[in-house]
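Hi W., the 4-nitrophenyl phosphate complex you wanted:
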Amino acid sequence: MRVLFVCLGNICRSPTAEGVLRHKLREAGLADRIEVDSAGTGDWHVGKAPDVRTRLAAQHRGYDLATLRGRQVSTSDFARFDLILAMDNSNLSHLHSLRPDNSSAELDLFLRRYQLALDEVPDPYYGGEQGFEQVLDLIEQASDALLVELKGRL
Ligand code: 4NP
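Structure:
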């Protein structure tokens, strides 16, 4: 199984999701069974480490995002990944427009898939610290549900 998380910049929300899911997979002993990656629809932060506010908030909860680097999503991702999870509706429509006709990758909105209180992970980039905590809260909840799904699909 291969899972790709997608947001706009690939420096806040999707690297958080990548780091949280990797952590949970390691804890569950499934790290070598499921491949996880993240990407952005935009190209402004290609090659950059996650935003320092994202890294610090994640670090406080035990997730290390320091080695992750930004990249832009590409059409080849639709052949490589089984499940592509978008952080918000704008990311999702961008992915739908990129998706090759012959792709069998499943595309969904991360939070909506698990019927959490919100459908979208709000973009924290231009806001305060609380936004980064909310991103982690939502992503931790959705990742628990995703882990249950992945265990069932293995
Ligand atoms: P992300 O947050 O999509 O969660 O990585 C953003 C990062 C950068 C920008 C926007 C959102 N930006 O405009 O540079």
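The beta strands are 2-7, 35-40, 83-86, 106-109.

W.
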